[in-house]
Amino acid sequence: MSATLNVGKSAVIDASQPVAIPPLPDYSGRLLGYTAAAVMIGVGILENVFANWMYWLIAGALVWPHITYVLTRKTFLNRVQRIRQHMLLVDCAIGGMFIGLLGLVAVPSVSVALMLMFSCLIVGGIKQWTFGVLLMVISLIIAIGIQGPAESFQSPLLTSITAMAATGLYICVTAFYSHQQARTLLMAKTQIQNQREQSIALSHKLSKYLSPQVWQSIFTGERDVRLETQRKKLAIFFSDIKGFTELSEEMEPEALTELLNHYFDEMSAVALKYGGTIDKFVGDSIMIFFGDPTTKGQREDAFACVSMAIEMRKHMKIMRQKWRSQGIKTPLEIRMGISTGYTTVGNFGAENRMDYTIIGKEVNLASRLESLADAGEILVSYETFSLIKDRIMCRDKGEITVKGFGKPVAIYEVVDFRRDMGPNRSFLEHEHSGFAMYLDSDKVTEKERRSILQALEEAADRLRNEDDL
């Protein structure tokens, strides 16, 4: 009669693999169950309840657990899935045969049936129990048909006590080891959960060094971490701060670092809003590209890139007002360059140190456009202009000669969204010494609208009063 006494020594848990159930407790449980059945038969023979030929059943009960162990561990059966459940069904068939050969003597028969049903419930639940009972009943009927029932279904007191004691011992020992297994599994689950939480925390820390799109593609398994590249058509963006070199000579390093980090933080938020892949920060420069690892198509990628640049230019006005209130008088402006074309994108470097970036002449062109741009200006290549011209107003800036390009390159200056041109535009700005106004009416709530109107009226009243004086 078999049970599963599954308990093992603590070991390092691999969270990627299911917790394995050791075979030795199966052997121990089966040995315990069959030994209990052999003791019951032996006592029954001594009390003349069973015939003497049943000594062969005792021998079979004591040998079978060892045979099963060899079959399931030393032969091809060790590769069979759900071998534990299959072998327990064999035990149920043997148990039913035992009960039939015992002649359905009540207490020993019930004891054997209880041990089998208890084992089935532990190992495989209701489904295993159902199949086990079915096989037990079938083999029992066959054995009764061969042997016939006993003359009396009652057993002497000693045989009954032995049967109940053996069954009780089997159930208690099996329950104890099942409890130990539950504790082991709980500890394993806790350890796996802790490892998972540590992995998540570590991955979030590492994500600070990668663009969110690249980090997500790596940790979801979409992209392998190996040296490989591919050719893709991307929109490439470069920007830097006009006047930053002069500012760095005026400010203390700590204050300059704080300003630069605040600038990068704000610009990164805008880039992520439009789905840009942040490649790197170099000094006060930012390099971003669109189209990898995710893309919405060439036209939408280019439009998202230019839209990001326009919002960065607008957002810079807000930041400039904040810096001015902090005592930074230098009027910091950003200049930007954008090109669209085929580049080589992927992991570059060595096996133990990689950098996910892009290379190609379009990268050089975007960098060249950024260096040619004036303060607050966005220059784009012709390829980019052709993809966005229906939604964004641009101004022809002529042609330039760029290393790596056989012909002069036509460039354009981004003016604004076409929807924001004319009297219905949502964006307004006005700056003078001592006065700065930036308004994007699409982003203003009704509550904020009243507050802004009140502030403008107070400012207008004050200016009128000073004129009267």
UniProtKB/TrEMBL annotation:
SMART domains: CYCc
Species for this entry: Marinobacter profundi
Name this protein carries in UniProt: Adenylate cyclase
InterPro entries according to UniProt: A/G_cyclase, Adenylyl/Guanylyl_Cyclase_3/4, MASE2, Nucleotide_cyclase
Pfam families assigned: Guanylate_cyc (PF00211), MASE2 (PF05230)
Top-level taxonomic group: Bacteria
Keywords: Membrane, Transmembrane, Transmembrane helix
GO biological process: one example: intracellular signal transduction
GO molecular function, one term: adenylate cyclase activity
Domain Guanylate cyclase: 235-370
TM region(s), chain numbering: 53-71, 92-117, 129-146, 158-177
UniProt-listed PROSITE patterns: GUANYLATE_CYCLASE_2
Gene3D superfamilies listed in its UniProt record: Nucleotide cyclase
